[in-house]
Each structure stands twice: as structure tokens, then as C-alpha cells.
Amino acid sequence: MRDGEPTERSSAGNAEGFESSQRTLVLRAMDGDLRAFEALVDQYQRPLRSFCHRMVRDAQEAEDIVQDTFLTVWRRFDTLHDPARFKAWIYRLASNACVDLIRKRETRRSVPTDSSDLQDFADLGVSPERNAEVSEAVRALEQVLAQLPPEQKLAWVLFEMQGESYAQIADILKVTENSVRGRIHRARMSIVQGMEGWL
User: Which distant-in-sequence residues (6+ apart) come within 8 Å of 8 by Cβ?
Assistant: First the structure.
């Protein structure tokens, strides 16, 4: 369809332009340009905080992980061999920190009960009865997610809540796309079983 062709070209051009400017920003930051690094922090801080919060379920610990991740990025820029893979690299660093924290918690048997993120789904302006029902379902989902193995939870959160593609998740986790699909599938099966009374 001819009418759609310019739009497709312009959106592809926009994506290429973003990737080019992103690569330039990363290269400048790698060379020690503090303003470029601050621009990267501005760009990634909010999505990383949201991702970490969904993983560890504690706002302060998520914030700590994000700050530590940016410090690690600044100190280890020399280990990033391909500036075009910056997003996958920074998410991998944050993911590893989240998984480490979850595993430490498992040894201490402590799970935080911060529900502010998933609670957003309950605040829909509906009747108090319906809102209470949705809140219960949200709490049940949180309990199921807390029981998932970290690798499954990580893949599920990246796909279902962060909107990353199978290819992007595979790049972040350094596994195959088939492995990502398997982890997400197993997570979904566990969620369906755990939420059986709510479906």
C-alpha cells in the first residue's frame, strides 16, 4: 500500500536515527564524557528502576540496585565491546544484581510485601467491592511470582511487564531465544496453576 510506505520508511529511519545517536552517546560516555553519561542515566534510570522493582518487590532495594548498576557501568565501560549492545549490557548487570538479591533472600527466607507496582492494576476507579477483589488477585499473583525460580521470573517480567522481545531478552540473559521461550512458558504454567482460583 503506497500510502503506508513513507510512514514505514520514516519509522525505520527514526529507529536508525535513535540507534545512531544512542551509539554516539555511549561512545562519548566511554571516552569519559560525563554529560553523555548523565544523558544515559536520564534515559535508563526510570525503566531500570521499574524493572528492578518488579523483580525484587522493594522500592529502596530496587533504587540501590539501579544506583549500583550505574556505578558499575561507569567503572566497567572498558568491558563493553559493542556500544550498540549497551541496553542489553546494562539490563544484564541489573538482572544479575536482582537475581543475587533474590537468592540471598531465599537463604534468609524473607520476602518483602511491597505491592505498590502491581497495585496499579487494582486502582481502576471501580466499585470498592470490585477493587477489593482485584487487590486480592494482585496479592495472589505476587505470591505466585515470589515462588518462581529467579531465571523464570526474570524472563517473564522482561517479556510481560517490560515489553522486551524474545531476541532482546536472549541478548540480555545471554541465552538462546528457545531458552527464553521455555522459561516464559514454564513461568506462565506456574502462574496459571497458582492463580487457578482466580481464573
Answer: none
